[in-house]
Amino acid sequence: MPDGRRAPVSPRAALRAPDTGSSAPSACAAPRPPTPGSPGPPRAPTPGPPWRGSVRAGVPQRLAEALSSQYGLHVFVAGLLLLLAWAVHAAGVGRRDLPGLLTALMALQLLWMLWYVGRRAAQRRLLRARDTQAGARWLRGDITLFAVITIILGCLKIGYFIGFSECLSAAEGVFPVTHAVHTLLQVYFLWGHAKDIIQSFKTLERFGVIHSVFTNLLLWANSVLNESKHQLNEHKERLITLGFGNMTIELDDHTPPCNCTPPTLCSAILHGIYYLYPFNIEYQILASTMLYVLWKNIGRKIDSHQHQKIEFKFHGVAVGLALGLTVLAATIGVVVVYLIQIGRSKSKSESALIMFYLYATAVLILMVAGGLVGILIYRLDEQSLDESKNPARKLDTDLLVGTASGSWLLSWGSILAILCAEARPSYTWYNLPYSILVIAEKSIQNLFIIESTHRQPEVSEDIRTVRVVTVCNGSVTSLASSCLKSGAVTRDVAPQGSEMPPAVNGNMCLREGDDKEERSREGPPGPASHPCFLQSNTKGRVLRNIAAFLFLCNISLWIPPAFGCRPEYDNGLEEIVFGFEPWIIVVNLAMPFSIFYRMHAAASLFEVYCKI
Q1: For the residues of 24-80, what is the DSSP string, one character each?
Q2: Which stretches does DSSP call E strand in 22-150?
Q3: Less Cβ around it within 10 Å: N or C end of the chain?
Q4: CB 194 within 8 A of CB 258
Q5: What's the pLDDT tens digit per position in 492-515?
């Protein structure tokens, strides 16, 4: 042939010709185009239209999901209204009505959990799908710790009932006992079944799980209300020392109408109850979130691959731990001094507020700087994001943004109060930078956490890529196959110890185990091909230090509001601008979300730390 090409071979002769002397792998074989009139390669059967039965089977499940969510909302709204009626002493609402309703809801959840655990135990030999990203071990450890403190709180409430048994109803004594049993069984349930993906009795299970979610939310709201009443009574006393006594109003704290038989013991029990409420609040909201993820996983189809195990790495984070522990120690000192000084006199109260604002401002500045550095590292490092559907991760993101809005509401209220007030005491000016930094810090921290949780795990540097270049009939394609640390080629490409011939039957297959020659031809890699400005080890170490520091800072900032150090109550300027009752309502609604944000952000940052 004049062009150096061989004459075409007929398809029938090509099929009869034996493939002798060919040692090339299947990846290098050139596909032969079918000739006209030949049957060609077998085609995969085209999928037919979906079965009507499968479509109809999906409709009841969607209806069950909608009905179960509506049922849960009805239970929650009815419980909230009864809680509000009890708080304002509505006519016809007695002391036993609220604990009676909560006890009935917990008893119904206990029956469902016992039925579920028993049915799972009877079918324990069956292989079932599990969501490895839900109910992490450290999260179950946290909820166990809070559950133990909740049980201690229940024991104190039982002692409180015994002390006031002459004037308390039986429902108020049954409630703490039922709550303790409910807590024990629920923690056992979450340890064993938080990762379950329910595929049978789905309609019934949806109602059972959503009932459990909103029962825990009602218990959380009840704890928040009781703790808020105690904080409000202390707040009224502090406002008198600051000169705002004309704004205080008389609020009933639901004290029993009889005397406790041992007064000293009852007073100690009462104080212990209010100091343990923050842990009970965190327990109820954590249980609600874990049960909600279980509800979202009902009927879900997950990928076959397992989630990467999270490992705790302690090395290389000395700087972050040192700074974080310093902030934690300073926080404890500030809280102790604040609680001692506030309410003693006007000058001591003002100095306590100034001390808190200066401390919090310094901590928030460091947290903003750390979050910005982490975001900058992620922005300069081009790495793929994990966009797969994950109910647990989506819930974490929604909770971060949703609960942060509580503190944003308080911060914007303080900013407007400072700007709109006619007279501003000197200590209130320290509140302005503090409120601005709260808004900025939570916004930046949310971005850092969301960016971290959506990052794909990095591939080890020891894993090398071997490219196989196939030149078939003038077309060049490149195949990438990952190799092990030894750098050997995978067996389906070439067997070990064998060399591939340069040309076989007109097809040329080249294996490049070492691409030094190609690098010399292409020239040195530029910044566009390697966008990372830090090495992988250095980048990981910096990010782990940032995550450890932010984790300890969030724990530190959770302590002051959880244990009564709340300048939003004690500042007094907001009550003048907005009015006492409106501002107290705003604080009581927003403060629980602000407190929960810190604990949830700390949990998310711990997961980020283990993932890096």
Answers
A1: --GGGPPPPPPPTTS--SPPPPPP-PPPHHHHHHHHHHHHHHHHHHHHHHHHHHHHH
A2: none
A3: N
A4: no
A5: 434 444 444 444 344 444 334 444
